[in-house]
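Quick one: Outer membrane protein assembly factor BamE from Sinimarinibacterium thermocellulolyticum, structure tokens please.
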Amino acid sequence: MIRRIAVSVLALWLVACNRVTPENYEKIESGMSRDEVHALLGKPDEVSGGGVGRMTLMTERWNGREHVISVTFATDKVTLKSIEPRRDE
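--- reply ---
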């Protein structure tokens, strides 16, 4: 029983890691909401930015096994996106 649980957890972890792919990157479109991007890629690994009044500018970053995806949101809508190979330092 414990072995089955461990295998299930490992499988879920591998699926989560595989979300940061060129295929999912291509699904991100200008104007998508943060919730839509989070549904596609999961919770971001890094968040930066800020705002003034109702205007916010946030950049979120997802670190996958092979790629890194960055998405910039203006008032919670996709405005910019980029993908690059992961470079471990």
